[in-house]
Amino acid sequence: MLLIVFVISMFVSATLLFLVEPMIAKMLLPLLGGTPAVWNTCLVFFQVMLLAGYSYAYVTMKWLSRKAQIVVHVALVLIPLVIVSALPFHLPYGWEPPTHYSPVFWLLGVLLFTVGLPFFVLSSTTPVLQRWFGDTDHKHAHDPYFLYAASNVGSLAGLLAYPILLEPLLRLSQQSRYWKSGYVVFVLMTVACAVLVWRRGGELAPADANQTKDLSVVAPTKELWRQRLRWIVLAFVPSSLMIGVTTALTTDVPAIPLFWVLPLALYLISFVLVFAKRPPISHEWLIRREPFFILAALIPVVSQVKMPLVVLLPIYLLGLFVVAMVCHGELARSRPRVDRLTEFYLWISVGGVIGGIFNSLVAPLVFRSVLEFPLVLIVAALLRPAIDIQPLTGAKLLWDRRKDWLLPMALGLCMAAAFLWIAHLGLKPSRALNILLFGYSTLWCLSFGKRPLRFAAGVTALFLASLLYSGSFGHVLHTERSFFGVSRVTNDVSGRFRYLFHGGTVHGIQSLDPSRSREPLAYYTKSGPAGEIFRAEQTRMPRANVAVIGLGAGALACELGEQQTLTYYEIDPTVVRLAQNPEYFTFLSQCAPQSKVILGDARLKLRDAPDGKYGLIVLDAFSGDTIPMHLVTREALALYLRKLAPGGVLAFHISNLYLQLSPTLAALADDAHLVDFTEDDTAVSQQEIDDGKFPSKWVVMARSEADVAALSQDVSSPARWVRVQARPDARVWTDDYSNLLSIIKWH
Question: Which of 230, 250, 492, 618 could form a disulfide with 474 if both were Cys (CB 3.0 to 4.6 A apart)?
Answer without folding.
Answer: 492
